[in-house]
Amino acid sequence: MQRNELVVRFGIQQYLHWTVVGLLIPVIILIFQSRGLNLTEVGIVMAVWIGSTTILEIPVGGLADTIGRKKTYSYSLVLTLLGCLNLLYANSLSSILISAMFLGASRAVYSGTLDAWFYDAFDRIPGDNSYHTAMAKVNVFVTVGLATGCLFGGVLPNSIVSSYFESFDAYDISIFVTSVSSIILLFLTRLLLPDEQKRIKESHKSTIIIAVKTSVQALNFSLNHWTLRLVIQATIVFGATMSAVENLWQPYLSELMGMQSKDLTLFGIISALYFLVSALSSIVSVPLLKVFGGSHKALMFVTRALAGLSLILLANTSNTMNFALLYLAFFFLLTMGNNSEQVLLNENTPEEMRSTILSISSFAVTGGGVLASLALGFISEYYGISLSWILCGSVLLISSLYFLGCREVVKTESV
């Protein structure tokens, strides 16, 4: 198999995966509210959802490195299926919390599995294309998949399909389609992605012990590795900043607009453009890397610093047009270095603990998001959203300096 074929196969799988993920995004809060939950209870459910992901990120990464990445990924689809089936019949806070735990655990099980699998598979195949270029292409599939899923997820409750299920509530069709899609994706993944190298079979007890040892070793390795430590610290700031903007942009824009007309068209337009900007950012990162002489850390430093400055400007906008332009510019710059960050992580990580360290990175993102949600929610409530964004922009600007201290692995392949 050639590298280009591997990229296409993995890209198609990622498109399908994120399409399935996107099906519930537009209606998940509405589903909770339709089951009688108030906003406080919705907050509890989301905290359990995110908390389940955060707690399981690192130990599950050790499991993937022990029993295999594709096998572990299949478990994430099973957990998604269980969470959706339970949610289909859940009608109380306690039963919905069970679904939240299943779905949060599914996210943790997925994290770092196929990304690690792809890096190893790509690295074993000789060729001129770089991993950075490959990930730029794959991320376009990811973004389009999310957009597709969100589109279908929003349309399904009012579609003619839902009329054939008389026993379903308005939003149950989205849950049902997600369940069926997870089963289909389980089989399609086996067809699309080549089998990974066989791993030594162990007893269940030995597997758990090895997984725990791998997790501990990966933690020690990442904390003592100069470049990984810097990247993960910057990732915490990335997660906090992303969470602060994603959680607060709607109320900030609502205040700018006044919302007397309750016209949400602009919100939909900005959300749609966000997906387009993310895809464009991934594509542009390839020629931009050449401008920086192939230096991933230089690209990361410049784009993250500019993202910090754009967020500070966004915090001081006073009209909707400037807000929309700066909001999209912020995400364009913030996500520009995501492919380079993956390169820095993978090139400095041993193969035997790759999934675990990618899970540690994901843990840093969610951990930063949780901290931001708690701290910046309080600051925004009493001192304003602008102050929260100015603080995040300033910290993001400072954290961009971390990348200047990173050590890059020099490779002879072209970028």
TrEMBL record:
Give the matching Pfam families: MFS_1
The UniProt entry, under InterPro entries, shows:
MFS, MFS_DHA3_Transporter, MFS_dom, MFS_trans_sf
Keyword terms of this UniProt record: Membrane, Transmembrane, Transmembrane helix
Q: Which ranges carry the Major facilitator superfamily (MFS) profile domain? A: 6-411
Instruction: Answer yes or no on keyword Ribosomal protein.
Output: no
Is-annotated flag, keyword Transmembrane helix?
yes
Which PANTHER family does this UniProt record tie to the protein?
PERMEASE, MAJOR FACILITATOR SUPERFAMILY-RELATED, TRANSPORT PROTEIN-RELATED
Q: What is this protein called?
A: MFS transporter
Organism field: Vibrio gallaecicus
